[in-house]
């Protein structure tokens, strides 16, 4: 870690936080391998649920890097697409007989339908790198929270490197998929998964429009 004066650190931190956006279009050029390694290193530095995974002998966080155009990326893209399509069909059937579910799930169902129509899961094969992150399951089951911390660190590091980053949350659905897990070299069902796409962003995005801190904060006495 660099030894900058604290105020400079603070200014840079704020800049990175404000610059962080979801990028969904990437150039095909591959970022340097060292940049990808430093993004993974930032993920490794993220907090983990020590009490939940404490007794495991094996290190509980793993990263798998898939490159655009590779055999593994083609396999991953088709397996994830299949899983999302199945999820979309199952949700459609469940919503037919359940109006409450329909009301709650319609936005998500529409998103799945859009992916089905597109024929691919955005972020898997649409950016130079697709990185899958695995967190060993523990008790209580807080793996997805740990993965979210890990991915946020990776996202901020990618932003600091001027790289685009996209969460690929459909990756989580692959944790029990035997073919996908065998490809990664892990046992199906033992790990929670999530993922992200990384590459040079094709669009320049302006900072998000957000409410002010005062609008969303209540100070309790
Ligand atoms: C739990 C979670 C899952 C998300 N999954 C995806 C995803 O699969 N694909 C995607 O493009 N964005 C995904 N996003 C990104 C959000 O859509 C995005 O953060 C939000 O629209 C705000 O935009 P910003 O990231 O540019 O600030 C996800 C965000 C969260 C918190």
UniProtKB/TrEMBL annotation:
Pfam families: Nitroreductase (PF00881). The keyword Signal does not apply. Residues 18-200 form the Nitroreductase domain. Keywords: Flavoprotein, FMN, Oxidoreductase. SUPFAM superfamilies: FMN-dependent nitroreductase-like. GO terms for molecular function: oxidoreductase activity. This is Nitroreductase. It comes from Methanosarcina spelaei.
């Amino acid at each position: 870690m660099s030894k900058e004066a604290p105020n400079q650190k603070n200014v840079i931190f704020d800049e990175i936080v404000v610059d962080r956006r979801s990028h969904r279009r990437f150039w095909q050029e591959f970022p340097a391998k060292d940049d990808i390694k430093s993004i993974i290193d930032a993920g490794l530095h993220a907090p983990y649920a020590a009490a939940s995974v404490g007794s495991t002998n094996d290190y509980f966080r793993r990263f798998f890097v898939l490159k655009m155009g590779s055999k593994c990326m083609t396999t991953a893209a088709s397996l994830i697409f299949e899983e999302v399509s199945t999820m979309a069909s199952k949700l459609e059937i469940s919503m037919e007989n359940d109006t409450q579910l329909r009301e709650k799930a319609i936005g998500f169902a529409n998103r799945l339908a859009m992916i089905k129509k597109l024929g691919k899961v955005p972020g898997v094969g649409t950016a130079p790198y697709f990185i899958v992150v695995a967190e060993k399951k523990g008790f209580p089951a807080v793996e997805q929270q740990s993965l979210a911390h890990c991915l946020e660190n990776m996202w901020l590091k990618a932003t600091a490197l001027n790289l685009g980053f996209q969460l690929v949350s459909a990756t989580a659905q692959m944790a029990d998929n035997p073919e996908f897990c065998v490809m990664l070299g892990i046992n199906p069902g033992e790990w929670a998964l999530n993922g992200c796409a990384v590459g040079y962003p094709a669009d320049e995005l302006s900072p998000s429009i957000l409410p002010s801190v005062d609008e969303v904060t209540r100070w309790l006495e």
